Amino acid sequence: MSDTSTKTIIILYTELAGYLLSCINELANNNVKVHIVNYPINKEAPFQFENTNTTITFYNRNDYDYESLIKLVETINPSLIYCAGWSDKDYLKTIKYFKSKTTTLLGFDNQWEGSLKQQLSSIYARLFITPYFKYAFVPGNIQQDFALKLGFKKTHIITGAYSANTTVFEQNYLNDQEKKRQAFPHKFIFVGRYVANKGLLELWQAFTELQNEQPNDWELWCLGVGDISPINHPKIKHFGFVQPSDLATYTEQTGVFVLPSRFEPWGVVVHEYAASGFPLLLSNRVGAREQFIQEGKNGFEFEAGNVESIKLALQKIITLKDSELFAMGEKSNELSKSISPKTWADSLLKIL
Predict the structure, then answer these.
(1) Do 199 and 282 fall within a single domain?
(2) Phi, psi of 94 (to 5 degrees)
(3) What are residue 159's DSSP bridge partners?
């Protein structure tokens, strides 16, 4: 920053994740004091965080009602208030209270689909939400379309709202590169919650049918927890929830990332595995596909919820040579560099 004076931002958030902290740390390293109000950790994604940055302060959302949120923001006196989404009514009321006193930013990852519900919601938002925000911060072009429908000017819409901790996953790529060049692991990997919306049931069925029809040496490794019971299959392995700091053990031993979500607004995990140098198999309902996959060059798309389509994508992978798979992984790593914690922080610095 050319301006050496310290700026202050307060972030009204839902549930924290490690990737967000990597972005916030980058922002804090640019002479910005960051205050974060957030909800407790989701039991289905019990991330453990270790924060040693003294310019970042955390507040438990459950300790604050509307009046105490107002007092907190007044005490902090931020240059920018960043509100993640519109589901928390007290957050929105806080934004409304301060909209004429400081810069306000709305973050969301909703995709515009043009449904009647969305069209009605956009009319409501133009009247009761959008007027309180100067800027919108969204992951990609699909969400930018939504922001336009909500009434934001294109010049006030910022993309790149989600980034993986690219430093960590780039290092995984570099550490595993030579080993995978010599012997590419014949293992698919899924990382996510064990819930129906992630498309796990269809993935397991597709993988099982393919193994029965065309026996091969590929395995499917699944990392996560949720309300779906793990399938019992000799070539499908389950490892439960894995902390981000322990993922390197699994990325080293696996080769192709698959995310079969029936709907995924974005999917930072796609960025993580692109940065790690993995060929990608993504459903056509994964938002991050627009940024990180080029059909046939570093992976394949398939129709969400369609077992035959998933099976075909898996089949395309297992028929490729190891050298081709390795080259696809290199392409993924190249595409991953378009977004980073630095680009995330730079976006906020521009409006600070």
Answers:
(1) yes
(2) -65, -45
(3) 138
Residues facing residue 219 across a β-bridge: 187
3-state secondary structure (DSSP) of residue 301? strand
Residues 173 and 145 in one domain: no
Pairing of strands 80-84, 299-302: unpaired
Tokens of 76: 């902090």
pLDDT at position 244, please?
A: 84
Q: Give the Cα separation of 201 and 205 in Å (integer).
A: 6
**pTM for the predicted model, two decimal places:** 0.93
Do 173 and 217 belong to one domain?
yes
Instruction: Tell me which residue range forms the domain holding 109.
Output: 7-164+339-351
Residue with tokens 């449904």: 115
Assess whether 15 and 158 both reside in one domain: yes
pLDDT at site 3: 46
**Helical H segments across the chain, by residue range:** 18-28, 66-76, 89-98, 116-128, 141-149, 166-182, 200-213, 248-253, 268-275, 289-292, 307-318, 322-336, 341-351
Flag whether 2 is in a domain.
no
Tens digits of per-residue pLDDT, 106-127? Answer: 999 999 989 999 999 999 999 9
DSSP code of 34? Answer: E
Tokens of 217: 């040496």
Q: What is the pLDDT of residue 196?
A: 97
CATH number of the domain to which 286 belongs: 3.40.50.2000
Q: ∠ CA 302-344-17 to the nearest 5 degrees?
A: 70
Residues β-bridged to residue 188: 220, 256
Q: Give the tens place of pLDDT for each residue, 185-240.
A: 999 999 999 999 999 999 999 999 999 999 999 999 999 999 999 999 999 999 99
